[in-house]
TrEMBL record:
Signal peptide: none annotated. InterPro entries: DNA/RNA_pol_sf, Retrotrans_Pao, Rev_trsase/Diguanyl_cyclase, RT_dom. Residues 50-169 form the Reverse transcriptase domain. This is Reverse transcriptase domain-containing protein. It comes from the Eukaryota. Pfam families: Peptidase_A17, RVT_1. PANTHER family: PEPTIDASE S1 DOMAIN-CONTAINING PROTEIN, PHD-TYPE DOMAIN-CONTAINING PROTEIN. Residues 498-509 have a biased composition (Polar residues). Residues 476-509 are annotated as: Disordered. Gene3D superfamilies: 3.30.70.270, HIV Type 1 Reverse Transcriptase, subunit A, domain 1 (3.10.10.10). Residues 476-497 have a biased composition (Basic and acidic residues).
C-alpha cells in the first residue's frame, strides 16, 4: 500500500524471497540478469543540466510484460477466496501470475531488456540512447534547452511508447508551454513530485532538500542505523549535517555491542543530540545549474580531510554563478593498530585523488549537455599538492602516495579526452567548502554556508583569484613527452630494415 503515490496506491507484489525453512525461494533460483539500470546519481546530475526539466513514468511497466505459458506455474500462489471468511479448504484458491510481477529479482532486468529491444528500432537513435541512459526502471528523467524541444519530446515519446503497448504518463515540467500541450490524463496531479527520491517543485523549478528522521523508542545500534539510512541523499548535498551521525555509527562498531541492546545513557544522549542538530533541515536549490549551454563552464572540485572523514565537493561555475552539483565523503578505515593510521598529509592526498575521480565522473556524465573546458582541483594541503607535482617514479613517500599520484594523472588524461584542461591549486581552509564536510555542521550553520556555492571568488576570473592559489598543470611524464615528440611512423616502416627503405624500381614491361 502506497497511499502517498498519485498513480498506483495499491499494487500486487509477489514475495519472491519468501521460503520455507531450509528451502529455496524463487528468487534464490532465478537468474537476476546483468545489471543494465543507469546510475541514479548520473541521471540526477543530468537533470540539472538544461533549462527545462521533464519527468514521466511508464504506466504499470512490469505488468505490460507477458510470461510465456510454460513458465507461469513457477509463479503460483495460494490465497483466500474471501478474506472475510475463515481459513478453510473451500476458502482457498491457487492462482498464478500471467505477467511479470513486482518482487522478482529479475523483474527490473526483464523490463530493461524489453525497453532496450524497442529502443533499438527507434528511428531517432540519439533520442533512443538518451531514453536508455535516463530511464531508471520505469521513471523517465530528461531535460531540454527550449520549450519547443520539450513539446517535441512529449509528442515523440508518447507515440513511440504507445506503438508497443506502453503508456507514458504522469508528465511534469517547469515548461508552461509543454504542460499546456500535455493531455490532462497524462499530467502529474501535483506540482511537487519526487524525482528518483528527490523532491522537485516544478512551479519554481527547485529541488527541495529536507531531513526527516523517524522517532525510535529505544536507542540501539539497530535503531541508529535505521535512523541514519532514512535520510536519502544520493548527491551528497546533506553531508555536513549528517556526517557526525555517520562517524558516531562507525565508532559503535569499534565496540562489541549487540544489535538490540540499549546503548549506555551517555551514548544515547550523544545520539539524540546529533539527531536534534540535523532534524528539520530544509533547503531549496535551483534545479537548473547551468542556463547558458552555449558557453563553456568551469568545474571546480574542492577536497579536504580530517581525522574523522575525507570529503570532496564539485561546483559548476560560469556566467557569474556557482552551483554545488555533487559531493562525496569517505570515513577512514578503522585501524586496530594506531601506528597504521595514515598521516594527515596522506589523508589529504587521498581526498585530492577522490576529487579527481569525482571530476572525471562529472565531465563524463555531462559531456553531451554542457561543455566543460576547465577543471580545477583545489586542496588546502600544500604537502599533498607538492606530492601531486612529483614524478611518480621519483616518489619517496611510499606505494600509497605513488598510487595516488598516478591516479590523479590518469584522471587528468581522462578529462583531457573531453577537451578540458586540468589544473591544481591551493585554497585556504577558511574558504574551502569541503572543510565543513569533514567536521560537520548543525542545520542552522548549514543553511547559508559557502557549502552551497563555494568560495566567493569562484565566479571571478582566474586573474583575480588569491595569488596563493598558484594554479598549475601537472607535467607530462618523460615517457609521454618522448612519445609525443617522436615522429610518427607506420608499423611496416618501423619493422623494415634500413637497407630496404629505398628499393630498386623494376622497369615496366
Amino acid at each position: 500500500m502506497t497511499p502517498d503515490k498519485e498513480t498506483t496506491k495499491c499494487r500486487v507484489v509477489m514475495d519472491g524471497s519468501g521460503a520455507e525453512k531450509d528451502k529455496y525461494s524463487i528468487n534464490d533460483v532465478l537468474q537476476p540478469g546483468a545489471a543494465d539500470i543507469p546510475d541514479l546519481c548520473t541521471i540526477l546530475l543530468l537533470f540539472r543540466a538544461e533549462e527545462f526539466g521533464i519527468i514521466a513514468d511508464v504506466e504499470k511497466a512490469f505488468l505490460q510484460l507477458l510470461i510465456r505459458l510454460a513458465d507461469r506455474d513457477a509463479l503460483r500462489f495460494r490465497t483466500f477466496v474471501d478474506v472475510n471468511k475463515p481459513l478453510t479448504p473451500d476458502n482457498l484458491v491457487d492462482l498464478r501470475f500471467t505477467r511479470v510481477p513486482f518482487g522478482l529479482t529479475q523483474s527490473p532486468f526483464l523490463l530493461s531488456q524489453a525497453l532496450k529491444h524497442q529502443l533499438a528500432e527507434m528511428a531517432d537513435q540519439h533520442l533512443a540512447k538518451e531514453l536508455h541512459n535516463q530511464t531508471y526502471v520505469d521513471n523517465v528523467v530528461v531535460t531540454r534547452r527550449s520549450e519547443e524541444d520539450a513539446v517535441k519530446f512529449y509528442e515523440t515519446t508518447k507515440e513511440f511508447y504507445g506503438n508497443f503497448g506502453m503508456n507514458l504518463r504522469a508528465f511534469q515540467s517547469n515548461s508552461k508551454r509543454l504542460m499546456e500541450h500535455v493531455k490532462e490524463k497524462d499530467k502529474a496531479q501535483n506540482d511537487i513530485q519526487k524525482v528518483l527520491g528527490v523532491k522537485w517543485t516544478s512551479t519554481n523549478d527547485t529541488l527541495n532538500l529536507e531531513i526527516k528522521i523517524p522517532d525510535k523508542k529505544k536507542v540501539t545500534k539497530r535503531s541508529t542505523m535505521q535512523q541514519y539510512f532514512s535520510i536519502f541523499d544520493p548527491m551528497g548535498f546533506l553531508i555536513p549535517a549528517t556526517l557526525n551521525m555517520k562517524v558516531f555509527i562507525q565508532e559503535l562498531w569499534k565496540h562489541d555491542i549487540s544489535w538490540d541492546k540499549p546503548l549506555e545513557p551517555q551514548l544515547a544522549e550523544e545520539w539524540q543530540r546529533l539527531i536534534k542538530e540535523a532534524e528539520g533541515f530544509q533547503k531549496n536549490l535551483p534545479r537548473c545549474a547551468w542556463h547558458n549551454t552555449q558557453e563553456a563552464a568551469t568545474l571546480i572540485v574542492c577536497s579536504d580531510a580530517s581525522k574523522s572523514a575525507m570529503a570532496t565537493c564539485a561546483y559548476l561555475v560560469g556566467n557569474a554563478t556557482s552551483h554545488l552539483v555533487m559531493a562525496k565523503s569517505i570515513l577512514p578505515k578503522i585501524q586496530r593498530d594506531p601506528e597504521m593510521t595514515p598521516s594527515m598529509p596522506k589523508l589529504e592526498m587521498t581526498a585530492l585523488t577522490e576529487g579527481a575521480h569525482l571530476a572525471v565522473r562529472i565531465t563524463e556524465s555531462l559531456k553531451d549537455k554542457i561543455t566543460i573546458n576547465k577543471v580545477i582541483l583545489l586542496s588546502d594541503s600544500e604537502i599533498a599538492l607538492a606530492w601531486a607535482k612529483t614524478d611518480p617514479k621519483r616518489c619517496t613517500q611510499g606505494r600509497a602516495v605513488k598510487n595516488r599520484i598516478m591516479d590523479i594523472r590518469k584522471a587528468r588524461d581522462q578529462i583531457a579526452l573531453k577537451n578540458a584542461t586540468t589544473m591544481l591549486g591551493y585554497i585556504n581552509t577558511d574558504c574551502n567548502p569541503a572543510d565543513c564536510a569533514t567536521r560537520g555542521l548543525t542545520r542552522e550553520e548549514l543553511q547559508n554556508h559557502i557549502w552551497w556555492t563555494g568560495a566567493k571568488y569562484f565566479t571571478d576570473s582566474l586573474d583575480e583569484w588569491p595569488k596563493r592559489t598558484a594554479l598549475f598543470e601537472l607535467p607530462c611524464d618523460k615517457e609521454e613527452e618522448d612519445k609525443v615528440n617522436q615522429p610518427l611512423q607506420h608499423k611496416e616502416e618501423e619493422k623494415r630494415p634500413p637497407s630496404q627503405t629505398i628499393q630498386t624500381a623494376r622497369s615496366p614491361r
